[in-house]
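Might you be able to review the protein record set out just below?
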Amino acid sequence: MSGQDAATATATATTTVNTTVTALAAEAGAEAAEERAPSGIGASVPAADTRAKSEGTFPYAADLWAEGLLWAAVLRSPHAHARILSIDTSAAADMPGVRAVVTHADVPGATTHGRRIADRPVFAHDVVRHHGEPIAAVAADHPDTARLAAAAIAVEYELLDPVTDPEQAFGAPALHPDGNLIRHIPLRYGDPEVTGEVVVEGLYRIGRQDPAPIGAEAGLAVPRPDGGVELYTASTDPHSDRDLAAACFGLEPDRVRVVVTGVPGATADREDAAFQLPLGLLALRTGCPVKLAATREESFLGHTHRHPTLLRYRHHADAEGRLVKVEAQILMDAGAYADASAESLAAAVAFACGPYVVPHAFVEGWAVRTNNPPSGHVRGEGAMQVCAAYEGQMDKLAAALGMDGAELRLRNVLATGDLLPTGQTVTCPAPVAELLRAVRDFELPALPKDTPEDEWLLPGGPEGAGEPGAVRRGVGYGVGMVHMLGAEGTDEVSTATVKVVGGTATVICAAVDTGQGFATLARQIVQEVLGVDEVATAPVDTDQPPAGPSAHGRHTWVSGGAVERAAKMVRTQLLQPMAHKLGMSTELLQIADGRITSYDGAFSMTVAEAIEGKELWATAQCRPHPTEPLDADGQGDAFVGLAFCAIRAVVDVDIELGSVRVVELAVAQDVGRVLNPRQLEARIEAGVTQGVGAALTENLRTVSGLVRHPDLTGYALPTSLDAPAVRIVKLVEERDVVAPFGAKAASAVPVVTAPAAVASAVRAATGRPVNRLPIRPSAAVAAPNS
């Protein structure tokens, strides 16, 4: 194929893919726009992509196709730690249908990458540091050929002893040139000599939870005639992915374009660079579009997981149950590479005492490298691990004091104006006591009848319990907190454009809707501000200004704020000529129910009439107030805002078999303002269910660093049959005045709180300490004389 022909073919492929993604996304937006009511902030507006997903037209990356398509496969390390002595790709390259084989030697730019610390190789070359690490990639004309060719690559290894215990990482040989310690945070707050009248200690272990995305990772790379490349992936942070890819490809960022396809749900960093980079390299090497659709095993081995964490605690309290001092050591297993470990550790250390007033706190936190699977951003990272530990300590204190667990917590809860152990004042609404009272006072569920017809209610399902008489019911509590937006000096900013043409408004913003409902929220905002019924969101790509990652409730706050500001600017453009003619300011004109009316009712006109024939647009940014890094003593105003949640768990435990059934979770949450009631309820229920998985079943097990059963058979996700009844008892709408709309992040804090509540309830039922998540059957067997 000549160079001109290749350029024509790639341009055609780009056009085909662009047309497919844009058309499908536009179809989804147009279908959503047909729903005329309800509308605006506070209404249960249907999700913008509901019809497209239900009809199968949502543009997932796994469904994309381009002319001249090749298929990719990646060779991954079968070892957790080994030295690479040689890589022979000749057998793979000689196979019919194979178009290219790439290794570390073929990376034209930076050979390592990482959003925070660039310590992760594109392809391993001298040593492999974890099971499943990429070593080479193949492009072929058929997916089976690509997989066979990848398997034909001969790699000679010298096996090395893996470092799998994070406690041994301090004295082990360095796994990386920077050493094994990623970050150490000592937090010192108050007087270290103070002691309490009652002291309890505990050792807690949190397992490795996988984000287990609904669809495994997939992507398409299309070379451009100018020597650049376009990546079509379910990215949750397209501009960061673009910059990272451009550095590895040896290209300027403007020659790499990331187009966000439909995201099939995300509770973590949805698309790991280890999947994107081989695609782009193969497309640049072959001059053809290249597609990769990962298997579930590859997905488990390739992406990051929740940090396994070891926590040691000592709580001091007075005789009345008021906390005096908390001492803690937190050790987070980062796996082979740094990724988000520094940020996760900061959250863990800062929230180590929980949403409680603690006059004196001394916490040591470490994040270390091992040869275990890499850890990274998963919803509620850092906060979830410490919540399980400090709530375990509160249960121990309550038992030592002979006090009700809810009452002990109420004596110590944070409120607005209190100080965190980092020295930061809680300036946002903190209705923790109100949340806890709401779940405590909510009616308990009825006990199951002891009849054969109701055996399905017993732990383990039908015939799951040995004897109904062995079942004990327990009630426990969890109170959790998370931070919103980035932390420690992260520059949070988002840009949005609102255009009104021909009676239809379009929102252009690079905020990726990962299932949190941003596309729906953007439509509600424009409907509220402009009174326009038909609102669509443009497909996301890196030709748009950056909006940042989809995490920590950012897009509700930052991107939603940018959309609101842009819509208000368009509103001014629309109303200014009318106000001038009427001799009044625009503030005296209001838009409601699709009409523009003056304050005195003398002027009235429909919005449709006002915008007919006009083209209006405006671009705006939203940037919250700055934060600062934690200092050498763990002090500093590191967080923009906080969100809180209280959960009461009711469980039935078979004390002979150790099986646990979660009967009900009563939830009270600090939400700031309800923007979409139905969507908010769904987000809370989903977060609670994910937390139940972390409490009872989800643990990606490893043996000597090797992942056991990397599939959905060996990794036990909770199903609809495992999901408990979730009762949303109270949503506290106390608006945060510094946040657009006053709303707070909704989905992370129930994930953080639910595991602690379930563990607390199992303690109540069995009398055992329950200091490990997920809870093992042996830990749910009743203690003697309980």
User: Anything to note?
Assistant: Residues 494-622 form a domain with the Aldehyde Oxidoreductase; domain 4 fold (CATH 3.30.365.10).
